[in-house]
C-alpha cells in the first residue's frame, strides 16, 4: 500500500529547479558574460585611456561602457547566486533569472552614477592613496562580512547587489583610480572579483592580496612611471 501523502513518481518538490532550469540559468549567465565582454572591449577600443588622467566624457558615453563592464565583471561570480535564486522560485526560476540579472546590474549602475559624479582626472598621488585604501579595506571585518553575504545570501537580487557592492567597492574604486578605460586593469580586477565570489574567505589568500594591493599603491606613490599605463604618455 502506498504511503499517504507520498509524492507521485517524477514529482518535484516546490523550490527545486529542474536540471534543465539550472543548465539554462548557467547558459544565460555565460552568454550574457561573453556578450558583455565583447561589447566592453569594443567600447574601450574607441575610448581614450589616459591612465589617471582619463576623462570620462559625457554621462551617456560613460554609461554605455560602464553597464557592459559591470555585466562582464560581475555576472560570472553571480552565477551561483542566480542558481540559488532560481531554486528559491521553483518552477518560475527561468523567468526569475533575467529579473535577478537586471536588479543586480541596476545596483552596479547606481554605483557607476555615484562614481561618475565624484570622479575627476587626477594624479598619481591620488591614485596611490586610493589603491592603498583599497588594499586596507580588503583586510577589514566589514569587507569579510559583505563578502560572506555576497557568497551566501540571496534574499533578493537588490540585497544581493548591495552586498556585492560592499564586498567589491574597494576593488572598483581602485579601477576608477588606475584607469577605468584600461582593459588590463579591468581584467585584473574582474579576476579578483570572481575569485572572491567563488572562494571562501581565507587569511592565507586574503591577507597577501590586501598587502599586494597596498604595495601597488606605495609603488605608485614612490615611482608612478614604473607602473605601465598609469601616466599618460608625453
Can you tell me about this structure?
With about 230 residues, the protein is mostly helical. It has eight helices and no strands. Helix 2 runs parallel beside helix 7, helix 3 packs parallel to helix 6 and helix 4 packs antiparallel against helix 6. The termini are far apart.
> Helix/strand/pairing class, anyone?
mainly alpha
Largest sheet: none
User: What's the tally of helices?
Assistant: 8
Helix percent band: over 70%
What share of the residues does DSSP label as strand, in percent? Answer: under 5%
Count of β-strands = 0
The parts where pLDDT drops under 50 for at least 5 residues are 1-15
What is the radius of gyration computed over CA atoms, rounded to a whole number of angstroms? 20 Å
User: Taking all residues together, what is the mean pLDDT?
Assistant: 86
Sequence of secondary-structure elements: HHHHHHHH
Described by the principal axes of the CA atoms, the overall outline is: globular
N-to-C CA distance = 86 Å
